[in-house]
Automatic annotation (TrEMBL):
InterPro entries: YdbS-like_PH. The keyword Calcium does not apply. The lineage of its organism: Bacteria, Pseudomonadati, Pseudomonadota, Gammaproteobacteria, Alteromonadales. The keyword Transmembrane helix applies. This is PH domain-containing protein. Keywords: Membrane, Transmembrane, Transmembrane helix. The chain crosses the membrane at residues 34-54, 60-79. Residues 85-150 form the YdbS-like PH domain. Residues 170-190 are annotated as: Disordered.
Length: 190
């Protein structure tokens, strides 16, 4: 019969010690933002150059607002990257992110279906990579960790794959011991 006893005291939460991202993760994030803002500023400058009516109307707000937005974005990246962290434990991986709304995602290795390492051109140049972990039944990555060194990504991926292989070996061994085929003379003569 199923029993569901009430707990008087909750189990104590383990303290997770997070390792920061790679040293070049901040530079990568800043360059990504600059690669967005610089072309935007160039396009707006060209529009102001060729359209005098728009320039008269928008030049002052653009000259004030865009640099302020750029500085705020770059400062936000500094705080965001410093608060991100990763922890590899015996049976799971934990990832912390967020500045205002902080989030800790813990993904058990036993749920991981497959992994991917993603590297864009800027990441390759800087020796960085992103690790994507997919769990069973998911179409998109359940955990996407960017800002890791490429070596860390390869090591984590190899650790996860070995954990999955060990789990499959244990499952195969247990199903083989559960199946007891009858000996040929026992099945007929009882």
């Amino acid at each position: 019969m199923f029993e569901n006893q009430q707990l008087d005291a909750l189990p104590q939460h383990q303290q997770i010690i997070f390792k920061p991202l790679a040293a070049k993760a901040l530079l990568h994030a800043q360059l990504n933002w600059l690669l967005f803002y610089i072309p935007l500023m160039v396009v707006l400058a060209v529009i102001c150059f060729f359209n005098q009516a728009f320039a008269a109307f928008a030049q002052t707000p653009l000259l004030i607002a865009l640099p302020i937005i750029l500085v705020i974005s770059l400062a936000y990246n500094v705080v965001s990257i410093r608060l991100k962290g990763i922890a590899i434990r015996e049976h799971d991986i934990a990832y912390r992110k967020g500045v205002i709304w902080q989030q800790v995602t813990i993904l058990p290795f036993s749920r991981v279906q497959h992994t991917e390492i993603h590297r864009g051109p800027l990441e390759r140049k800087m020796g960085l990579a992103s690790l994507r972990l997919y769990s069973a039944g998911g179409m998109s990555a359940d955990l996407n960790i960017s800002g890791l060194s490429h070596d860390d990504c390869k090591n984590i991926r190899q650790f996860v794959q070995k954990y999955i292989e060990r789990g499959q070996a244990v499952n195969n061994a247990s199903t083989q011991t559960d199946d007891h085929p009858l000996a040929p003379d026992e099945s007929l003569n009882g």
